[in-house]
Amino acid sequence: MPCHWDYRNLRRLLERESFPAMIVDLDCLDENISNISKNISKTDKKIRIATKSIRVPDIIKYIQKKGGSNFQGLMCYSMEEAKFLSSLGFDDLLIAYPTFSFNDIEIFFSLTQAGNNIVLMVDCIDHVKAIERFWTRFSSDNNYKARVCMDVDMSYRPAGLHLGVYRSPIRTFEQFKELFEKMRGIENIEISGIMGYEAQIAGMGEKNPFSPMLNPAKWFIKYMSVRDVYKKRQVIHEYLKEENFKIDFYNGGGSGSQLSTAEEPWITEVTVGSGFLQSHLFDYYKDNKSVPAFCFALQVTRNPEPGFYTCKSGGFIASGETSLDKSPVPFLPEGMKMVSNEGFGEVQTPVKYNDSEEIYLGDPLFFRSAKAGEIAEHFQEYILIRNNEIIERVPTYRGLNFCFY
Ligand SMILES: Cc1ncc(COP(=O)(O)O)c(C=O)c1O
Q1: Can you give the pTM of this predicted structure?
Q2: Is the shortest distance between the CB of 288 and ligand 1 below 6 Å?
Q3: Which CATH number does the domain 26-278 belong to among 3.40.50.920, 3.20.20.10, 3.30.1490.190, 1.10.10.10?
Q4: Do 26-278 and 294-400 agree at the fold level?
Q5: pLDDT per residue over 18-41, tens digit each?
Q6: 254 alpha carbon to ligand 1 midpoint, in Å?
Q7: Chain segment 335-368, per-residue pLDDT in tens
Q8: What's the 3-state SS for the chain?
Q9: Which of 177, 235, 312, 404: disulfide with 81, CB 3.0–4.6 Å?
Q10: Which residue out of 197, 259, 260, 274 has the highest number of ligand 1 atoms within 8 Å of its CB and is therefore the one to mutate?
Q11: Residue nearest to atom 5 of ligand 1 (CA)
């Protein structure tokens, strides 16, 4: 069935539910999986799912199964998370953020030893040494190599500016080469992949209605940095080719850069997370045409005056720079407006509504979160609907009693 959200039907479905409630429409999710797969697989690239942007194991599994051979492994955000996912049968786990935790490296070691395909991110020699120290202490057998991925900075830095995120210190090819050569000489380390995440393209929407004046500048930055990133990744690829050094994967991008990342010939896989469930921040990218596949319901518990409906709870604000677009947005019924000096509050969220639906105390109103994964920390389970009926409930990490960082 085509993706279609209908207020009255949702209200009927949730008659007996507790609130807040999170709803995922599988028909819409299917549409997103299919579009993303088409976008990326036409260039012969694979898709790596960013688990941080989902945080519900059954949904991750569902996407992977539905996407079939176009999908390749997971990008995890924590080692404890990778351990849990591996216990569920997931493999090919790339831990996207470096760690200095002894516990994490111990897990990394035991997962490797147990035969899991698990790769840890590094961007400096200290990261590598921390792994190596552990490895030489615990592995008497050199068969267990620590597989690592080098994170190369993809920020755009014209005229001394820094446009992008502050992550890896590997900014130039020379810096890449220096670390690469050092790592190559270390017996227990295997350089398995390269990652370059172009946040100023993949994480910045150029059609943002919350800051329209900045959109032309954002478009220009993105336009310029697509070329810059292309060259940066190409130089590394050519060097590896010259050296005859084979890597297992070259990872880039995110939901907001699917097309431009996939077009680079050397890229082997594109990471996508948020574009599956499609939180509202990802509506503001020309490269991402996903449809909303989830939304949360709050219950109207007060009617402070005609045309105002106050819901319980709702303050699910997303992380990052504290701008207006990090708030959820009204979804259904259409025509709801936020009360700007209250917004989405810790205990209540009022909305203004004067349109065609009759709203009564106890009714649900529906909203979309800014980001796709963090919101799962506020819910124990997601309610799955298909063909306008509830078909299943699946636990979030939080519902499974996990809290990963
Ligand atoms: C390393 C890395 N790759 C890819 C992504 C893209 O994820 P998404 O598709 O959810 O935007 C992110 C998001 O922060 C990231 O940190």
Answers
A1: 0.97
A2: no
A3: 3.20.20.10
A4: no
A5: 999 999 999 999 999 999 999 998
A6: 5
A7: 999 999 999 999 999 999 999 999 999 999 999 9
A8: CCCCCCHHHHHHHCCCCCCCEEEEEHHHHHHHHHHHHHHHHCCCCEEEEEHHHCCCHHHHHHHHHHHHHHEEEEEECCHHHHHHHHHCCCCCEEECCCCCCHHHHHHHHHHHHCCCCEEEEECCHHHHHHHHHHHHHHCCCCCCCEEEEEECCCCECHHHCCECCCCCCCCCHHHHHHHHHHHHCCCCEEEEEEEECCHHHHCCCCCCCCCHHHHHHHHHHHHHHHHHHHHHHHHHHHHHHHCCCCCCEEEECCHHHHHHHHCCCCCCEEEECHHHHCCHHHHHCCCCCCCCCEEEEEEEEEEEECCEEEEECCCCCCCCCCCHHHCCEEEECCCCEECCCCCCCCCEEEEECCCCCCCCCCCEEEEECCCCCHHHHHCCEEEEEECCEEEEEEECCHHHCCCCC
A9: 404
A10: 197
A11: 254
Residue tagged 């997931």 (tokens) = 90
